Structures are given as structure tokens and as C-alpha cells.
Amino acid sequence: MSYTLKDCIDTARLQCNDADASTWGDPAFLPFANEGILFLFTERPECRLTSAGALTAYVALTAVGTAVPLSDEYKNALIEYLIYRFFCADDGDTRDKARAAEHLQRFQELIGPSK
After folding, report:
1. Number of domains in the chain
2. Residues of the chain with confidence (pLDDT) below 70
């Protein structure tokens, strides 16, 4: 749990070809990050474990600079989820179903099969 949402967004932007944030501003990613985090909290409760072995409670992120409450091994999964949502969006030229499906598949591979 040592990364911020901004770290995830910056990495996602590179794959979305939106490095200059001309298509989506950072706040546009916030609701989708919360959606992804809540999904992981629900489906993969082990992602909530701190290094001390305690479970963190879900609290929606309210700012891009906030630390993500997921263990570090889920950082790439969250990034893939953000990219998936970017390509699902109907904002300008972002909609690309094939690329969205590719990133959703990567997200699912990273988190493993449903329990």
C-alpha cells in the first residue's frame, strides 16, 4: 500500500495515448478507480491486507493524490481497470471496444479466477 492513484493514472495515460491529459483530466479517473477498488475489496479480500496482517476498510478515494488502499501486487490490476474504463468511455475518440476488451482481459488475468 505504497502508491497513489496519481501513480496509477500516470501509468495508465501512457497506454491510453493521453499523456498530456487532453482527453481525460485526472479527476475523470477517480470514480472508476473507486469502482475498481470496491470490486477488488469484494472479490479479493486478501488485497486489503496490510504488511502487518490487518484488513483495511473500504473508503472511497476523494482525491487523485490519495494513497490506494490495496496491496502493491494489485497496482497493475488497478491500472488495467482504469485503461479498460477509459476505452469504454464515449468521450471524444476514446471509445474502442477491442482495446477495452483487451484491458479487461488483462485485469481479469491479474486478479485470477472468480471465487
Report:
1. 1
2. 1, 91-94, 114-115
Cell of 94: 476514446
Angle subtended at Cα 38 by Cα 7 and Cα 46, rounded to the nearest 5 degrees: 85
pLDDT computed for residue 25 by the predictor: 92
Please tell me the predicted confidence (pLDDT) of residue 89. 86
What pLDDT does 13 receive? Answer: 94
| SS3 (DSSP) at 4 | strand
The residue type of 4 is T
Q: What is the mean pLDDT of the chain?
A: 90
- pTM for the complete prediction? 0.91
Beta bridge partners of 55: 49
Q: Could you tell me if 36 and 68 are in contact, meaning their C-beta atoms sit under 8 angstroms apart?
A: no
CA–CA gap between residue 67 and residue 62 (Å, rounded):
10
Its domain, for residue 26, covers 5-111
With beta carbons less than 8 A apart as the criterion, state whether 24 and 90 touch: no
CA dist., res. 19 & res. 35, Å (int): 23
Residue with cell 478515494: 61
